[in-house]
Specification:
The structure holds two protein chains of two kinds.
Chain A (H helix, E strand, L loop, with lengths): L1 H8 L1 H19 L15 H15 L5 H23 L7 H14 L13 H8 L9 E9 L8 H15 L17 E6 H8 L1 H7 L7 E6 L4 E10 L6 H29 L13 H5 L1
Antiparallel strand pairs in A: 1-2, 1-4, 3-4
Chain B lengths: L1 H5 L23 H12 L19 E7 L5 H5 L6 H8 L4 E2 L5 E2 L7 E4 L17 H5 L1 H11 L3 H13 L5 H4 L10 H12 L6 E8 L10 E5 L3 H4 L15 H15 L3 E5 L14 E2 L2 E2 L2 H10 L2 E6 L2 E2 L31 H4 L4 H15 L7 E4 L32 E5 L4 E4 L8 E4 L6 H9 L3 E4 L5 E7 L12 H8 L1 E2 L14 E7 L7 E11 L5 E10 L33 E7 L9 E9 L2 E2 L1 H9 L10 E2 L2 E4 L2 E3 L4
Parallel strand pairs in B: 1-4, 4-5, 10-12
Antiparallel strand pairs in B: 1-15, 2-3, 5-6, 6-7, 8-9, 10-11, 13-14, 15-16, 16-26, 17-18, 17-19, 19-22, 20-21, 20-23, 23-26, 23-27, 24-25
Helix pairs in contact in B: 4-9, 6-7
The chains are: A alpha+beta, B alpha+beta.
């Protein structure tokens, strides 16, 4: 304590203290803010070429000088808003921004072409494993006579059976115009897949066709529209195609699955770097998970 | 909401390099092609075999021309995770997992689909990992590539994104010689359509939505390519933001430029006039410019169809405009514009609904020489889920939060506190699909049928609807076993023109409808006529032409209501009323050959449970007061026009 008092009495020390105070005051008074360096928005030749290219790909012609000026100014404006917005943290907690970045990342981890080439035998194995997805439904050609329940006072079935026996007896093999009731449903169908038949006649009718005899009038068959007599012309049963027949489709599906798997793997690899802590509200974990 | 989303500028990169010129040896002219085909198909001299030369369409093809996936920024922001590939897989009948984690499958496949994501902010991403030579030639590109190969993909990704945001991305990779160095969302959209297009079985169209929405007034259009990826990838979609525009006239210029450059074909389908606050179908001026014959001609050329029903309301008719139409009050969205920022006034309605636009078109044709509103009708979904699931009993909502859940009936879709406009999620409709009378299930055949307007809109069910107009249909034609044969031989199908009126004759129509094979019976088939009298005044009248049962028209000429079998609580109904099929021939009893007119068909089903009833039944949730629980689904055909001889 006495040492400090003794020092303060020293003129040299006093001089230094006064000097320091003066200097400090000077610094304090003179601390007008320095000009901050201005950020640079540089629109380089590459960017201009890009802007120009987008225009050309949109309009099928290059932009005029004036249009290009306008586009560059619009880009500058976007850039400045973008930077100012980020400085304010507007990109934080913005759902659109976050999901967009997720989408971008997902694009980035898309597999490359090498990863999308199946090894020998891989497609055959895929087909074997997913046989049920590649079943070719039956195809059939047929003629049909329609009985409209509304016009036949509940006797559609009876009338159909009656006509069937006469058709059988007379062995009518060509033409059936004038028989049954008028309908928009086609009176005959050339060889068509089950899907087309079902789209017109409904699932009940399409299933019934599988059980009918060939080249003979049969039925009655019910559909959602009414009652039908049917004469199957040709019937190719449902079958399992070989790989050569559907290679392209199998390859597409294999690739889709592979793309999904790789995306999943890459997400998990990324997730490995994180410890995920979820604070479920007390007692509501089960509820929240649902 | 869309406007708000779009106004958020996102950094996006479209990188492209000039593509090698494509030889234009294939010049398609769908107009003359159609004429030729028509001639061949409908020649007068009949072959002995009834099936020879029969290449008119025998079955309507059903699809959705307006589906969004996660590539649409707003859909992605709402949580949609499904990509265009998923959307095509679902539409062709596969089971997929919805963004909300639920398994979902259609009752039966659709025949075609257009993935139409918003062109603005579609998103463009680098395609480094394809290992393209120009990428590998660049030291930075090579470094990133190696990082990815060595399992440091995440670090590389971050460096790449940083490089993008700081504009330090290597120029050499930006512009590879002769090929775009980047895969972007548009290219992936094209690739997905190419992968799933399966001519003859399932058509995956290339398309996009141009989302003009200035001041919240909906002027959106879906653009559909007739072409394959080789042509579509030569261009980038037209945007609203620079270098695009919010003026449809500029979209049409873009379409013309595309066709000129590639020799391809595109058409545009506007939708949701009901949310345009009176600007979808202008009659005086558009974007500050007086309508003229150029506008009318251009619009009529590019916009051959209008999407009259979808999740955000049905826009065929409005009770204010059609007070005598007891079926006009159907799934309306008439509170304001798209974002609810400006309330609706009665004066706007005339310029928003398809029926009034068809009428005004007659008047404009007289003034301008061309009818700008000579459009056919389709329905589509506008779903933002990647799921074209529009059946009442299998409805997966308009956006991902509206996928099935006990809460979805109670949530709010639009809430604009400034105007007090509020639209509840229960008001979203499970509608609709486009039905197209195409000869084949291919891009070309479907597109050509759309171009000739041989289409109809449905609000979801897949009823088969025929509508033929001519001068000589007779009652006996309704008894014929092949109505299509007679229809095409003696008349024109929906979307066509009647031509000159023979002396003393009135237009006759052969109409037929067949219920959806797994759906509800039909209540009635109506013909709606619109015409202009000698004073230039416009009129409309609705005729009941065919109906089920033995109902007699009342004093007002209207067939009484069909009744209802709906059990709302059980979400069930029976086909004990209505008819599975309706066929008739009708002659216009009020025809005046001096008056231009149009006629279109409206087919109405018996009442069935609305999606809200299925929700209440399956989730046990209680609907909010006022929630509609039943509806009468319907189909609207494209019109057939009559123009007096000059």
């Amino acid at each position: 304590m006495s040492l400090l008092r003794q020092m303060l009495r020293e003129p040299v020390v006093q001089f230094l203290l006064i000097g320091a105070a003066t200097f400090g005051a000077y610094l304090y008074l003179d601390r007008a803010p320095p000009e901050p360096p201005r950020e640079i928005v540089q629109v380089g030749a590459g960017r201009i070429a890009q802007i120009s290219e987008i225009f050309a790909r949109t309009w099928q012609r290059p932009p005029t000088e004036e249009e290009l000026q306008g586009l560059v100014q619009a880009f500058v404006k976007e850039e400045i808003y973008y930077r100012e917005g980020r400085k304010l943290g507007l990109d934080q907690d913005d759902t659109i921004f976050r999901r967009r970045l997720q989408q971008k990342m997902e694009f980035l981890v898309e597999p490359d072409e090498q990863e999308m080439i199946p090894d020998e035998g891989e497609l055959a194995a895929w087909l074997e494993k997913n046989r049920q997805n590649y079943v070719v439904p039956y195809r059939a050609s047929f003629r049909q006579v329609y009985f409209d329940p509304a016009r036949r006072d509940g006797e559609a079935m009876v009338d159909a059976r009656a006509l069937l026996s006469s058709l059988e007896e007379e062995d009518v093999s060509t033409g059936n115009s004038g028989l049954g009731d008028a309908t928009m449903l086609p009176r005959s169908m050339a060889l068509s897949g089950r899907r087309q038949i079902e789209a017109l006649f409904g699932p009940k009718f399409a299933s019934a066709l599988e059980t009918l005899p060939l080249a003979a009038w049969s039925g009655p068959v019910r559909s959602d529209y009414g009652v039908h007599l049917v004469r199957l012309g040709a019937f190719e049963p449902e079958r399992q195609p070989g790989l050569d027949e559907i290679r392209e489709i199998v390859l597409r599906d294999w690739r889709d699955e592979r793309r999904r798997k790789i995306a999943e793997q890459r997400y998990h690899a990324m997730k490995e770097n994180y410890e995920v802590i979820v604070d479920w509200p007390q007692g509501s974990a089960e509820e929240a998970r649902q | 909401m869309t406007r708000w989303l779009l106004s958020l500028a996102m950094a996006s990169f479209v990188i492209g390099a000039p593509l090698p010129a494509v030889s234009q040896d294939f010049q398609s002219d769908s107009g003359s092609l159609t004429d030729l085909k028509a001639e061949r198909a409908f020649q007068d001299k009949k072959a002995y075999s009834p099936y020879a030369d029969r290449n008119f369409p025998t079955r309507p093809l059903f699809g959705d021309t307006h589906l969004h996936t996660s590539f649409s920024m707003d859909a992605g922001a709402f949580g949609a995770r499904l990509t265009p590939r998923d959307a095509y897989r679902f539409a062709r009948g596969e089971q997929v997992t919805a963004s909300s984690g639920q398994p979902v499958k259609l009752s039966r496949p659709l025949d075609f689909l257009v993935v139409a994501d918003h062109s603005d902010n579609m998103g463009f991403f680098p395609d480094l990992f394809a290992g393209k030579p120009n990428v590998l030639a660049d030291p930075t590109g090579r470094k990133w590539y190696n990082m990815v190969k060595n399992g440091q993909g995440n670090e590389a990704a971050i460096e790449i994104i940083t490089a993008f945001s700081h504009n330090t991305f290597p120029q050499e990779i930006y512009y590879g010689p002769g090929q775009p160095a980047y895969k972007h969302a548009w290219q992936e959209t094209i690739d997905a359509a190419e992968a799933y297009n399966d001519p003859g079985r399932f058509t995956a169209f290339i398309g996009y939505e141009w989302t003009s929405n200035t001041d919240g007034n909906n002027l959106h259009r879906n653009v559909i390519f007739r072409d394959n990826g080789d042509k579509a990838s030569q261009v980038v979609p037209f945007t609203v933001y620079a270098p695009g525009s919010d003026n449809p006239v500029h979209l049409w210029e873009w379409m013309a430029a595309y066709e000129d450059k590639t020799g391809g074909n595109v058409l545009a389908i506007p939708h949701n006039g009901n949310l345009s606050n009176g600007v979808m179908f202008p009659v005086e001026e558009a974007f500050g410019k007086q309508l003229d014959s150029g506008y009318a001609e251009t619009r009529a050329k590019w916009e051959r169809l209008y999407e009259t029903t979808q999740t955000k309301g049905t826009g065929e008719a409005h009770p204010y405009l059609s007070p005598n139409d007891e079926f006009a009050d159907f799934e309306l969205w008439d509170k304001g514009n798209l974002d609810g920022s400006v309330p609706k006034t009665d004066a706007m309605l005339e310029f928003e609904y398809s029926r009034s636009a068809l009428k005004n078109g007659l008047k404009l044709e007289k003034e301008l020489g061309v009818n700008p509103y000579k459009f056919g009708l389709i329905g589509s979904s506008d779903a933002h889920t990647g799921l074209a699931a529009m059946a009442e009993e299998n409805f997966f909502g308009k956006t991902t939060p509206q996928e099935p859940s006990p809460e979805r009936m109670k949530a709010v879709f639009v809430d604009n506190p400034a105007t007090g406009i509020k639209i509840m999620d229960w008001e979203v409709g499970a509608s609709g699909y486009a039905a197209v009378w195409a000869e084949d299930n291919t891009r070309e055949a479907l597109w050509d049928a759309m171009y000739r307007r041989e289409t109809y809109a449905t609000t979801g069910p897949r009823m088969v609807v025929r509508f033929f107009g001519g001068w000589d249909f007779a009652q006996a034609d309704a008894e014929d076993r092949l109505p299509a044969d007679i229809g095409y031989t003696k008349g024109v199908p929906m979307g066509g023109d009647l031509g000159n009126a023979p002396d003393g004759k009135a237009p006759t129509f052969l109409i037929a409808a067949l219920k959806d094979p797994i759906g509800a019976n039909l209540d009635r088939y109506q013909i709606i006529k619109g015409w202009m009298d000698a004073n230039g005044d416009l009129h409309e009248k609705i005729y009941d032409v065919a109906w089920s049962g033995d109902r007699e028209p009342g004093d007002d000429g209207k067939v009484p209501a069909v009744g209802s079998t709906v059990d709302v609580e059980a979400a069930n109904w029976t086909n004990t009323i209505g008819a599975p099929e309706l066929i008739a021939v009708w002659e216009d009893p009020d025809f005046d050959p001096a008056q231009p007119a149009f006629y279109y068909g409206r087919v109405i089903e018996i009442p069935t449970p609305r999606w809200t009833a299925y929700d209440a039944n399956r989730f046990g949730s209680t609907p909010l007061e006022g929630t509609r629980m039943t509806l009468q689904e319907r189909a609207y055909t494209s019109p057939i026009w009559y123009n007096p001889e000059e």
